[in-house]
Design goal:
There is one protein chain. The chain is of the alpha/beta class. It folds into two domains: 72 residues, Rossmann fold (3-Layer(aba) Sandwich); 240 residues, Heat Shock Protein 90 (2-Layer Sandwich), CATH 3.30.565.10. The strands form five sheets. Strands 7-10-11-13-12 form a five-stranded mixed sheet, with helices on one face. Strands 1-4-5 form a three-stranded parallel sheet, sandwiched between helices. It has a two-stranded antiparallel ribbon with strand order 2-3. β12 and β13 form a beta hairpin. The longest helix is centred in the middle third of the chain and has 63 residues. The protein is elongated. The termini are far apart. 26% of the residues are buried.
């Protein structure tokens, strides 16, 4: 019948057992399988399952002597393209079935690809939305905090000299908002899910993050110390690393019940799996995180992510940014075995070695 086909010429490989047929699939580029469900080494629908384990996307046409409607329906549910009964087909029907099977499989693969692409773009859109919503919320919180402080000081005629400083803080927050909008605009380009990876200096970004933190939370007693053996340390990152630092720092403030917020930032280096990393630890004296939540707080869909509170892009998005740097993040107890004494957020980011300078 294939020799009598009018539209196309077919190269046909015939094997009597399933095992021989599977070997053929590995040797040649096959377009479609004509499958008998009664083979010496395998029978029934189990034959389909075994083939699918080897070739998931191959179009398969059942070609059998069993005129069984229930079996036909079951095989179609398993993804078979057609069910043909021997003795009830002719060359035209067989050729048409083969061509339609190949075309339908191609359409199916294209639809699956489009679906995955849409899902990726939808997740990316949510990513940008979360960045904007969380960070703008924090910026507005900073402006509100300064406005409340200004209102209190205006009641004292001797503190009018501080007005210029307060206005400067508000201007700083507005600049941060403008920068955020600019960053989100860059990120929203679907062709580039993140801004380009560049060499970024850790200490300068930390200094900016700490200044932003203290400006936004002036009514808090915040003490931050940086321990580093290096004057300058460079990593492979982009401007979103500033958001990563601010998120962790503000979490340490907002989830802290002490009169004084204590944060120690340790900067060191670590080699892991032949990769040189810069290791940054944020050790706080806050309320801490139970062991059962240490992994889930980095998952966007988890209710434990409510730990994040008010700043930034959220720990799940922090992880996504660090993943884009091929970095890592995890959380441990500040004091091993007692989570109530604070948390230690540990970040690993690939190092840009040629720019590092020791003291």
């Amino acid at each position: 019948m294939l020799k009598e086909a009018k539209r196309f010429q077919f190269n046909f490989f015939k094997h009597k057992t399933l095992s021989e047929g599977l070997e053929e699939l590995l040797k040649n580029e096959i377009d479609v399988i004509l499958l008998d469900l009664n083979l010496p080494d395998c029978t029934g629908l189990n034959t389909i399952s075994i083939i699918r384990e080897k070739v998931e996307d191959m179009p398969i046409i059942i070609l059998t002597g069993r005129d069984d409607e229930d079996l036909a329906i079951q095989s179609l549910k398993l993804g078979m393209q057609d069910y043909l009964v021997k003795g009830k087909i002719d060359p035209v029907l067989l050729e048409r079935s083969i061509l339609y099977a190949i075309e339908r499989q191609q359409v199916k693969l294209e639809l699956e690809f489009s679906k995955k692409k849409i899902e990726v773009e939808f997740q990316r859109a949510n990513f940008y939305k979360d960045i904007f919503a969380h960070d703008m919320s924090n910026i507005l919180q900073g402006i509100l905090s300064v406005a409340q402080l200004w209102k209190i000081q205006m009641m004292d005629p001797q503190v009018n000299n501080d007005i210029t400083d307060i206005i400067g803080v508000i201007e700083n927050q507005i600049i941060r908002g403008s920068t955020l909008i600019s960053n989100v605009r860059k990120l929203s380009q679907l062709e580039e899910p993140t801004t380009p990876i560049q060499s970024k200096e850790i200490h300068s970004l930390l200094k900016t993050s700490i200044n932003n933190l203290k400006n936004g939370y002036q009514t808090y007693n915040i003490n931050i110390k940086i321990h580093s053996s290096y004057k300058r340390v460079y990593v492979q990152a982009n401007e979103l690393l500033l958001d990563v630092f601010e998120n962790i720092l503000i979490n340490a403030v907002k989830h802290n019940e002490n009169l004084s917020v204590e944060i120690v930032i340790k900067i060191s280096k670590k080699k892991e799996n032949q990769i040189n990393y810069v290791k940054i630890e944020f050790i706080d004296n806050g309320i801490g995180i139970e062991d059962s939540r240490k992994d889930s707080i980095f998952t966007r869909a988890s209710p434990d992510n409510n730990y994040i509170g008010g700043m930034g892009i959220g720990l799940s998005l922090v992880k996504r940014i660090l993943d884009s740097y091929k970095g890592q993040i995890r959380v441990e107890d500040s004091f091993k075995g007692d989570h109530t004494k604070g948390s230690n957020f540990i970040i690993l980011i690939p190092e840009t070695r040629n720019l590092n300078k020791k003291k």
